[in-house]
Design goal:
There is one protein chain. By secondary structure, the chain is of the alpha/beta class. The chain has 2 domains: about 1-190, Phosphotransferase system, lactose/cellobiose-type IIA subunit (Methane Monooxygenase Hydroxylase, Chain G, domain 1, Up-down Bundle), CATH 1.20.58.80; about 315-480, Cytidine Deaminase, domain 2 (3-Layer(aba) Sandwich). About 55% of the residues lie in helices and about 10% in strands. Strands 1, 2, 3, 6, 7, 8, 9, 10 and 11 form a 9-stranded mixed beta sheet that branches. It has a two-stranded antiparallel sheet with strand order 4-5. A hairpin with a 4-residue loop joins strand 4 (about 360) and strand 5. It is elongated.
């Protein structure tokens, strides 16, 4: 996996970080040393492919990894002294080409990174200038926005004040109209009362005149009529001791006698006018919140199919079906069948092209390949790279047993993209598994248990290989049966 490089970093530091990444490898003494020599051959093969394609980062990492293993660390392997001379000779030959190629890629990387750093510097200057321009524009926009808001607030407050004054004027006018109406009513009632009083005075005067006239008539009648002896005395007695006439009848008696009724007088205390309604008030403390703006949606693109940055591994669509046909005889007898997956590297992606079926021993829950040399020869003769293995579970579901995990671990240590394909024909399941790079590989490499044994379920030791791509757009699988 090529590290993602930051062009802002100094070119020399970027090259050193690649070298450190390539040299970060541990030689496991539990793996046969022959496996390291074989993987080294494939490592050089891939490095040369990357070199020819101009993929300098990947080529430099693999050259660095190869030199770290076969110059420094392989000597510490417990089987080093027993290593085959031809393997040592091949490694020495590869080192002779790896050193100059590594130096050449290092030079090209420095040139490439220097150019990228120069471009980055120009872009960074432009970015900063643009950022400063944007900041100035934003400051101006905020200033204009602030001024606009102040204008809006002033206009709004002026409008509220105008409305309040209008309401107050309307309320005062309404109160004045009500007071004027009440005053007019009082004046009208007063005038009516005065008219009634005048009529009453006239009636009283008329009654008094009539009473006096009646008295005069009676007096005249008494003088003209001879008075009997007893009558004069009675008359004098009726006049009282002072000789006066009896008092005139009251106004009420006269008015009742003449059929005059006293008019109903309005109450002296008129009804109080209705209090004016209070003018509506405006809450001047209320303000419009203008701070909230629409949030921007951030489109974050991420790949869920390849979480670990592994190179894509393309698998012919007919691979599993053809392997199940080949394994059907063992499947009917409840025996596992296994094969080695091998293929090519091109344009930073792997393609499985071959299944190499070795001589093997099988049980219902295990399968062991024999004669590794024949497998290596088949890989070399077809100029292939080992990319994992495939096996069946005749009666069980598709999963990785503890033995399967230990079988797969060396493949993935030497090739991070290596996969284990498990076919479970009885349950019609096919799965692509790999050890988790952040936990599973280290855990299984350090596990010294043999045979079937339990492993913890958390954290996960293995997972589905998200970098696997099954496709019919590539040539069909080739099978080389060595049995």
């Amino acid at each position: 996996m090529v590290m993602q490089q930051d062009p802002s970093i100094e070119p020399g530091q970027r090259v050193r970080s690649l070298a450190e990444h390539g040299s970060n490898i541990v030689v496991d003494g539990n793996l046969p040393i022959r496996r390291y020599f074989r993987s080294g051959q494939e490592m050089i093969k891939m490095a040369n492919i990357y070199y020819e394609e101009g993929n300098w980062e990947s080529a430099f990492i693999l050259y660095s990894k190869y030199m770290t293993i076969f110059v420094e660390k392989i000597r510490k392997h417990p089987q080093y002294k027993a290593a085959r001379p031809e393997d040592l000779k091949s490694a020495k030959k590869n080192l002779k080409s790896a050193f100059p190629n590594a130096e050449e890629t290092k030079k090209k990387l420095r040139e490439k990174y220097a150019e990228e750093h120069k471009i980055w510097q120009v872009q960074e200057d432009e970015r900063r200038a643009e950022e400063a321009r944007q900041e100035a524009m934003e400051a101006l926009r905020l200033e204009e926005e602030h001024a606009r808001r102040e204008q809006e607030d002033t206009a709004r407050f002026d409008e509220q004040r105008r409305q309040l004054e209008e309401l107050e004027r309307h309320s005062i006018d309404q109160q004045q109209r009500e007071l004027d109406g009440q005053k007019a009513s009082l004046m009208q009632a007063k005038a009516k009362q005065e008219a009634l009083d005048q009529e009453r005075k006239k009636a009283d005067a008329l009654n008094e005149q009539e009473w006096q006239a009646e008295g005069n008539r009676r007096l005249a009648g008494s003088i003209a009529t001879p008075i009997a002896a007893g009558g004069a005395a009675g008359l004098v007695a009726g006049m009282g001791a002072g000789g006066n006439l009896p008092p005139p009848p009251s106004y009420d008696a006269v008015s009742q006698g003449y059929g005059i009724r006293s008019p109903q007088v309005l109450p002296s205390s008129p009804t109080q006018p209705t209090a004016p309604r209070p003018a509506p008030t405006v809450d001047r403390s209320l303000k419009i919140d203008r701070t909230n703006k629409p949030a921007q949606m951030l489109g974050i693109a991420s790949s869920t199919s390849n979480l670990h940055g592994l190179r894509d591994l393309f698998i012919p669509a007919d691979t599993m079906e053809r392997f199940l046909v080949l394994a059907s005889h063992n499947t009917q007898r409840n025996l596992e069948t296994c094969g080695i997956l091998a293929g090519k590297l091109a344009h930073d992606a792997f393609t499985i092209t071959h299944i190499i079926v070795p001589k093997q021993t099988s049980t219902s829950d295990s399968c062991t390949a024999l004669n590794e040399e024949e497998i290596f020869d088949a890989v070399d003769n077809n100029d292939l790279i080992t990319l994992g293995w495939i096996h069946t579970h005749p009666s069980q579901t598709a999963f990785m047993s503890s033995i399967d995990l230990h079988t797969h671990c060396p493949y993935q240590i030497m090739m991070p993209e290596a996969i284990a394909i498990v076919c479970a024909p009885k349950h019609q399941q096919i799965c692509f598994f790999s050890l988790t790079p952040d936990y599973g590989i280290t855990f299984i490499a350090n596990c010294k248990e043999k045979g079937f044994h339990p492993h913890p379920s958390q954290p996960p030791i293995y997972e589905e290989g998200g970098h696997c791509k099954v496709t019919s757009q590539i040539p069909p699988i080739k099978i080389e049966d060595l049995r």
